[in-house]
Write a sequence for this structure.
């Protein structure tokens, strides 16, 4: 069992036993049938993984679609677009279609469009190269000007902080909200992939990946699946389980999915299908 598996079990147990239940409260999200989607949740969850020690945040209690998660990161930070057509035609990813804004074939002025508008990725890369020990290396996707311009889902994985120490890159991912059984592990893995690309571009070694979630929740229609996951033991041998960026490339914008390898990943089966709250 990985450190991520252990953290997942502890967090889900805490949410189910101690979390607040929004039943009876007014909530925004709904299931496809129109029913309000209520949650059990806790606030202010912190996790830390030392990548130098091989503590990759990979869940083995169920299969994580790691390739699709990295594709999504490329869509946001390389392509820097909000286009659903790019996401489908280039990466064959369709799960964002439920968040299409007014038949525009976009998710609104969000995510990749925000990265492009404020030139956030280039500012980060240039800043880390020219002033590695600066304390202002931040990408913030939570831009109110963008929210006022169009409708769209407010970013969940909304901010990253980057720091360097003796040629080692540390990064913290901040999320306003995290659907723990569905997306939490995906977000961890994909942002470690982003961290790897930035480190490679700037010639840094990988350091610590930290994850702060303000609202960590389980939807009411996912509770039974979570209980089943809590009974699982996870992958037995995780000694050589790791994500690798295996390439001689050093330009952030040239990395592709094919440059990544997830080695010795044998997650528990069968996998789960979760009903999404929109």
């Amino acid at each position: 069992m990985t450190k991520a598996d252990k953290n997942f079990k502890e967090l889900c147990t805490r949410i189910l036993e101690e979390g607040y239940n929004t039943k009876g409260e007014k909530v925004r999200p709904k299931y496809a049938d129109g029913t309000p989607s209520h949650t059990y949740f806790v606030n202010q969850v912190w996790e830390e993984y030392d990548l130098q020690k091989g503590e990759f945040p990979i869940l083995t209690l169920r299969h994580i679609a790691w390739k699709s998660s990295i594709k999504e990161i490329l869509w946001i930070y390389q392509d820097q677009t909000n286009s659903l057509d790019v996401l489908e035609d280039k990466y064959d990813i369709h799960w964002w279609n439920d968040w299409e804004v007014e038949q525009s074939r976009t998710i609104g002025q969000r995510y990749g469009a925000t990265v492009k508008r404020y030139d956030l990725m280039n500012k980060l890369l240039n800043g880390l190269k020219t002033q590695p020990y600066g304390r202002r290396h931040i990408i913030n996707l939570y831009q109110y000007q963008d929210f006022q311009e169009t409708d769209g889902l407010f970013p969940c994985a909304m901010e990253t902080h980057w720091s360097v120490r003796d040629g080692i890159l540390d990064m913290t991912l901040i999320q306003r909200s995290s659907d723990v059984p569905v997306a939490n592990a995906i977000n961890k893995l994909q942002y470690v992939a982003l961290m790897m690309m930035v480190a490679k571009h700037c010639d840094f070694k990988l350091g610590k990946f930290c994850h702060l979630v303000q609202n960590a929740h389980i939807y009411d229609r996912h509770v039974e699946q979570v209980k089943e996951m809590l009974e699982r033991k996870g992958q037995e041998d995780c000694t050589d389980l790791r994500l690798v960026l295996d390439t001689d490339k050093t330009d952030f914008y040239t990395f592709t999915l094919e440059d990544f390898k997830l080695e010795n990943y044998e997650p528990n089966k069968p996998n789960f299908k979760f009903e999404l709250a929109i």
User: Anything to note?
Assistant: The radius of gyration is 18 Å. The helical segments are 3-18, 66-77, 84-91, 112-117, 120-130, 144-149, 180-202, 223-230. Strands lie at 20-21, 39-50, 138-140, 157-165, 168-175, 178-179, 205-219, 242-245, 260-263. The first helix runs from residue 3 to 18.
